[in-house]
Amino acid sequence: MKRVYLSGPDVFLPNAIELGEAKKKLCITYGFEGLVPADKKLDLSKIPGKYAKGVAIYHADLKLMQDCDFTICQLTPYDGPSADVGTVFEMGWMIGMGKPCLGYTNSPLSMLDRIKSMGHTISIDAQGWPVSEQGLRQEDFDMSDNLMIDGALEAQGFPMIRHAARPDQLYTDLTGFEACLKLAKQRFAS
Amino acid sequence: MKRVYLSGPDVFLPNAIELGEAKKKLCITYGFEGLVPADKKLDLSKIPGKYAKGVAIYHADLKLMQDCDFTICQLTPYDGPSADVGTVFEMGWMIGMGKPCLGYTNSPLSMLDRIKSMGHTISIDAQGWPVSEQGLRQEDFDMSDNLMIDGALEAQGFPMIRHAARPDQLYTDLTGFEACLKLAKQRFAS
After folding, report:
1. Distance from the CA of A37 to the CA of which of A26, A189, B32, B151 falls in 20 to 30 A?
2. Between B137, B142, B148, which is nearest A61 by CB?
3. Residues of chain B whose pLDDT is less than 50?
4. Smallest Cβ distance to B79: which of A62, A80, A135?
């Protein structure tokens, strides 16, 4: 049975454990074993100091990822217009390791529309780039996030799954997650 | 001469080209050849459609990274409390590829202090985690960003370089960048 690492800002939610369990159950129905960050064996009480604890968690998460065959990333915007950076690091690392990566977002907007929806005013600069009122260039590639994210998914044949979740289920709606599982099942069966 | 990929939100700045040239000049003084995203050979006018253009840029940037021996990432917070996600993807990918990665931030704050400085009120939940007023857990590891970022740098023996830049030089101050070059020179000489 192939193992899938379930990456996302899920770990920061108050119901992180329940959400992880729900995702793992869904994985089983598609023939996969799901692993979440909470699966690591790590006794933080034995590690002195905050910084050393953080480093230990990094190593333990990396070990979990090493033990998995592929990953499904929740890429719903978190704490800003883009996906959670911890998730994006893991996505990059897995792809660098040659392991497939699928991703979903519970925001249906394109990156540029999301920037606009956050109240930014976009104009076009002398080189034809969209720029914010701070003069920062904005991506306009009909992608849901930074082009390294959507580009990486596309390059593997798993374009970003976009789903419009209800606002109160922004991080917990599993429609896009299940769509990723379906795609993975098709890919690994063939 | 070793090649270093210069990753960062620099590409979104109005003076991206000048900043890239300044970084490349500094690289030379430390014995490295610096490559920036603008170095790719890509005629976007020949690629039809926004999405396809974005994917083409992804592939071209990946090619540049493949051609480099290591990377220096600008990890100054961008569009929120954390580093630019495109940069973080590249960092993860390079490390997954087994290539060293150094990083600097022009914000001296820890992640938790930055969240507080953005106006969030932090309390402690029943499990002892710091949580924001939205109930989202916050990291408190005396790190400058998400633990996957600082942890990855630490794991390679290149802890995050933190520098307090003047606000008007938040993305252009090269003190931290030059500190990374010094560390890289020491490492690769030995």
Report:
1. A189
2. B148
3. none
4. A80
All residues of chain A having their beta carbon less than 8 Å from the beta carbon of residue B90 are: 92, 148
Contact A152, A89 (CB under 8 A): no
| Residue B65, CB-side half-sphere exposure with 13 Å CA sphere | 29
Average pLDDT over residues A178-184: 98
Q: What count of Cα atoms within 13 Å lies in the side-chain half-sphere of residue B87?
A: 26
pLDDT on residue B126: 86
The answer to whether A26 and A74 are in contact (CB under 8 A) is no
Distance from CA of A126 to the nearest CA of B (A): 10
Q: Which pLDDT score is estimated for A32?
A: 97
Average pLDDT over residues A115-126: 94
Tell whether the model's pLDDT for residue A110 goes beyond 70: yes
Cβ proximity of B93 and A94 under 8 Å: no
Q: Give me the torsion for CA of B97, B74, A89, A173, rounded to 10°.
A: -150
Nearest CA in chain A to B75: A85
Q: How close B159 comes to chain A (CA, Å)?
A: 11
Note the pLDDT of residue B128.
86
Strand partners, B34: B4
- The token pair at B83 is 């580093």
> Which residues contact residue A77 at a Cβ distance below 8 angstroms, ignoring those fewer than 6 apart?
A83, A105, A107, A114, A145
B141 → closest Cβ in A54, A94, A96: A54
SS3 B183: helix
Quote the CA–CA distance of B12 and B7 in Å, as a whole number.
12
CA distances from B174 to B24, B104, B163, B165, B183 (A): 11, 9, 9, 9, 14
pLDDT for B58 equals 98
Token digits of residue A107: 């925001």
Chain B hits for A50, Cβ within 8 Å: 140-142
User: Strand locations in chain B, DSSP E?
Assistant: 3-7, 33-35, 70-74, 101-105, 123-124, 130-131, 161-162
pLDDT in tens, A165-176: 999 999 999 999
Q: What is the pTM of this model?
A: 0.97
